[in-house]
Amino acid sequence: MEGMPSGGALDGARFVSYTYRSVCMRNGSASPPDDHGHPPGAREKLLGAAIDLFTARGYAATSVREIVEHAGLTKPALYYHFGSKEAIYLEILREVRLVMDEALSRLSSGGGPARERLIRFAVGLFEVFEGNVSAARFMNAVLWGPPQGAPPFDFRTVHDAIRAAVGGMVEEGIAQGEFGPGEPTDVAQAFIAVLSFSMDVHLVYPDSSPGTAGLRRTLDILFRGIARPVDQETPR
């Protein structure tokens, strides 16, 4: 699902702040641990700065000095929270995966007709994407850019989780007669293609973004189909 805008940290800090709060709540902690003299919010600032720089320049071309300067901090803060450039890179990827896993779990649950569930899933995932555009740009840079000696990350696990969630709902719709007969894998692929391209347009041409309303309309077309029934075709 598919570039770095000018300016400083955008939603990168908001993204890491959300994931950090979610970890604290899951661990039963109401607030983050003591930073041992480091400025409040230093961890989130470092992660936001690293997202910006890794996206814009790549892993190899980004130094620890540049990350801390972009965050308005010093090297000891980064070494305290992460230990190394490699570690902060891997932590970004880990937190992106955490957000994705939580979103997929939440959006895959709930009852109702398969069509409603699929639309709810797509719209919900698009909203998560809209709130984490800097992280999405980073993930695309990692996925499509040269390795540059960066630590490896298995993107297949993320894609497989999305395909499994969508495929399961499609299979249920076919089994219950809500959808016509077809290969569930192919239907799921078409559904994901609509969602993925909508995200791409939002990233590259934000002024022309379909938004959730446009995504709903496109998915409605997918569900209805665009071919005329044979008995309604215009004679040639």
Task: Describe the structure in your own words.
By secondary structure, the protein is mainly alpha-helical. It has a single domain, classed as Tetracycline Repressor, domain 2. Helix content is 65%, strand content 0%. It is built from 10 helices and no strands. Helix 2 crosses helix 3, helix 6 packs parallel to helix 9 (184-204) and helix 9 (184-204) runs antiparallel to helix 10 (211-224). The longest helix has 24 residues, at 85-108. The two termini are 41 Å apart. Residues 2-34 have low confidence and may be disordered.
CATH architecture assignment: Orthogonal Bundle
Number of separate domains:
1
- Point out poorly predicted stretches: 2-34
Class in CATH?
Mainly Alpha
In the CATH hierarchy, the third-tier topology is known as Tetracycline Repressor, domain 2
What is the end-to-end distance?
41 Å
Q: What is the percent of helical residues? A: 55-70%
Give, in order, the helices and strands: HHHHHHHHHH
Shape: elongated
Summarize the structure.
This protein has 236 residues and is mainly alpha-helical.
Descriptive tags:
mainly alpha, elongated, Tetracycline Repressor, domain 2, 0% strand, 236 residues, 65% helix
Helices, strands, pairings?
Elements: H1 12-26, H2 42-57, H3 64-71, H4 75-81, H5 85-108, H6 114-130, H7 133-144, H8 156-175, H9 184-204, H10 211-224
Helix pairs in contact: 1-2, 2-3, 2-5, 2-7, 5-6, 5-8, 6-8, 6-9, 6-10, 8-9, 9-10
